[in-house]
Amino acid sequence: xxxxxxxxxxxxxxxxxxxxxxxxxxxxxxxxxxxxxxxxxxxxxxxxxxxxxxxxxxxxxxxxxxxxxxxxxxxxxxxxxxxxxxxxxxxxxxxxxxxxxxxxxxxxxxxxxxxxxxxxxxxxxxxxxxxxxxxxxxxxxxxxxxxxxxxxxxxxxxxxxxxxxxxxxxxxxxxxxxxxxxxxxxxxxxxxxxxxxxxxxxxxxxxxxxxxxxxxxxxxxxxxxxxxxxxxxxxxxxxxxxxxxxxxxxxxxxxxxxxxxxxxxxxxxxxxxxxxxxxxxxxxxxxxxxxxxxxxxxxxxxxxxxxxxxxxxxxxxxxxxxxxxxxxxxxxxxxxxxxxxxxxxxxxxxxxxxxxxxxxxxxxxxxxxxxxxxxxxxxxxxxxxxxxxxxxxxxxxxxxxxxxxxxxxxxxxxxxxxxxxxxxxxxxxxxxxxxxxxxxxxxxxxxxxxxxxxxxxxxxxxxxxxxxxxxxxxxxxxxxxxxxxxxxxxxxxxxxxxxxxxxxxxxxxxxxxxxxxxxxxxxxxx
Length: 526
What we know:
alpha/beta
């Protein structure tokens, strides 16, 4: 997030696009609701499904799945044509405006309406609400990123924010809400195939030399590959061993039939986790890890705030903290790691990671700190890009709308989109062990529009069969107007209804993220 969570409550307008905030991020969802109900903030919800936030929205834009770029271009068309954009900000803080303006010129509200299904007048209203707000925040999650155009979607959000001067101000920003508690921290610490800690590029000779000197090793200059690319390489026999930590690709990866085949091709599969997930059940070796309450360390949350976690109870059995397992394994393999405590690791992070340089345990004992924090006297950075962007000028991108990789046809006439529900968490490895949660949400359902149900002869609670070009699942129907005609929604929390058997593994060409949010399916009575 460019801005902090607390700012959401005090902004003037919020655009929530591709985020079911109240179910995926209930604490942040509470902030959004309070901003609307207690402080009069205007809320624009852009989502194909009638999520809970729609009840609080000033306006709801119900775009067709996979048409976010067109919708955002349409809003920018209105803002630019009506002179509502921040001319001074654009001139002094950005570049590429003319090229972007030329592209969005054709995305008139009427043209955009044909692509998105959103009425032209609603596009105009939403654009004016966002542009006329003193400070406006954009919130998004995987409804924006999990597309073959995910990078384009994110750049379009950035375009909208920048032309209205909403980056580098309190209460504004482009704010992706992370899907799990320490996803931000993992990325900060180099758990990406193209960077070291603090997003220092692997291909940068100076950065690489710094880490080589600190670690006493030679490091390859070539970036690695992403999760889906790794499984593809395993399927082809190019990757022989895989070490999985706190991840469950046997339920969370797209096209699960292919994913399972890939894992079965491995010579060695190691899983390090707190519970025996579906992936752990097929592993050659399982390393039992301590959970958050059984170890010391830090988490970096979605707003870039680094916070201490403290051990509350001892880990059961042979379980150890992740850092201990990795250190011992590395030492046994010939590279000694002699850390005694997590604080030793943080001291190394302070030296090698400029954005974390001033984030020490002594300071974290008092309060969490937002990075970047370049030295021990720096207070941390509540919101980013105040005077300049890290690249200097903010780059406005000229982006054309592209349809999803797979669209409905006569054989597969429905669009399926996937997501989470409040009562289950990710692949259910933890949450499905809770009796109370399971009573609230015991099974996967197929949400389908009443008109589609009538046409198919389906009744409430009837088992239906959903098929894509990659597989078939069966689940009970939930007949609801929350989804539009021609669209169904399913969640992926249940191993008995492994929805990712259906999803499309087509990747964004830059970020290599699969298109979980749009695939073509057929629906029939089971």
